[in-house]
Amino acid sequence: MTNFLSLADVSDLDALIQSGRDAKASPFANQHLGKNKTIGLIFFNSSLRTRLSTQKAAQNLGLNVMTMNVGQDSWGLEMEEGVFMNGDKAEHVREAAAVIGRYCDIIGIRAFAELKDREKDYKEQVMHQFAKYANVPIVNLESATRHPLQSLADCITIEEAKAQSGIKRPKVVLTWLPHFKPLPQAVANSFSEWMNARANSGDVDFVITHPEGYELAPEFVGNAKVIYNQDEAFEGADFIYGKNWSSYTQYGQVLTQDPSWAVTMDDIRRSNNGKFMHCLPVRRNLKVADEVLDSPHSLVIEQAANREWSAQAVLKEILQGM
Ligand code: CP
């Protein structure tokens, strides 16, 4: 593995999931891999889990870690080529990425969608500019359209729960949740991309449910069954994965805040004794009821804990390829 920008960079998904589970069982087994090497974690946006779990995973592998918040700790970065730089961005990514690439052996980057221009967001300019100019492997810490480290942690979490329940091919339902703010599609896109791969290999059945107008981009929906009636979608569900996203078709807009789409214990009862998943952070009771989050049905803490192991599996594979 050179870069880890999306599922397309994964050659063997089963092996990567197993590598994460192995890291969880034996966190320090590969400490030699990162010795005398450095990872830079570059954040254009806020983070709790991604920042701490990736740092911890890197340390488990013996890597030195440097973290920087762009625009707060550093100069604002210009991404466009050929611009006359008389705006508020003091440094161009050409120099910034090249310089960070001299200090670091791997660079992780978080850069969310701006939700103003769909074409621009879906071009993944920040990731591609860093990949072009840094000259070292780039890890996606959540980009405009994807959050692959989260999706890998989600796969690990589902496999662990499958092993406990004995259900060989669970029904996994991605549901839109209400929110008053426009949020990116990245987590939902990425989860769909990875679950479609798991469905293709016979490991899950995958269903997406959302109100009309919240259709994800076709390349992410893939072969998933889309059901507009949430109650119907939840029937027989083994996993309910909740996430809010803004509209892709009416780009970046909040079309409804219908509270009936929030997940409650009635929804869990409608499912097959289902488990609730969410990448966090989650706004309690706006998106999911306290009684769900505080019940044994919730996997959200385990999911967040597994972020350490998903990051470790990816960093290990990158280090092994150096
Ligand atoms: N799930 C996730 O990426 O959390 P943070 O935004 O806190 O990193």
UniProtKB/TrEMBL annotation:
Q: Which PANTHER family match?
A: ORNITHINE CARBAMOYLTRANSFERASE, MITOCHONDRIAL, ORNITHINE TRANSCARBAMYLASE, MITOCHONDRIAL
Q: For the Aspartate/ornithine carbamoyltransferase Asp/Orn-binding domain, which residue ranges apply?
A: 194-316
What are the record keywords, sorted? Amino-acid biosynthesis, Arginine biosynthesis, Transferase
Q: What is this protein called?
A: N-succinylornithine carbamoyltransferase
Its quaternary organisation is: Homotrimer.
What HAMAP family does its record include?
A: SOTCase
Gene3D superfamilies, alphabetically?
A: Aspartate/ornithine carbamoyltransferase
Kindly list the biological process annotations in GO that this record carries: citrulline biosynthetic process; L-arginine biosynthetic process via ornithine
User: Which pathway does this polypeptide act in?
Assistant: Amino-acid biosynthesis; L-arginine biosynthesis
Q: Could you tell me what this protein does?
A: Catalyzes the transfer of the carbamoyl group from carbamoyl phosphate to the delta-amino group of N(2)-succinyl-L-ornithine to produce N(2)-succinyl-L-citrulline. Is essential for arginine biosynthesis.
Give the signal peptide as a residue range, or say none if absent. none
Q: Does the keyword rRNA processing apply?
A: no
The record's catalysed reaction(s) read:
N(2)-succinyl-L-ornithine + carbamoyl phosphate = N(2)-succinyl-L-citrulline + phosphate + H(+)
Q: Does the keyword Transit peptide apply?
A: no
- Could you say which protein family the record assigns here? Belongs to the aspartate/ornithine carbamoyltransferase superfamily. SOTCase family.
What's the short name of a Pfam family annotated to this entry? OTCace_N
Q: Where does N(2)-succinyl-L-ornithine bind?
A: 142, 179, 243, 283
Origin: domain of life: Bacteria
Amino acids binding carbamoyl phosphate = 47-50, 75, 110, 147-150, 279-280, 307
Q: Which gene encodes it?
A: argF'
- Documented EC number(s): 2.1.3.11
Source organism per UniProt: Spirosoma terrae
Every Aspartate/ornithine carbamoyltransferase carbamoyl-P binding domain range: 3-160
GO MF terms, alphabetically ordered: amino acid binding; ornithine carbamoyltransferase activity
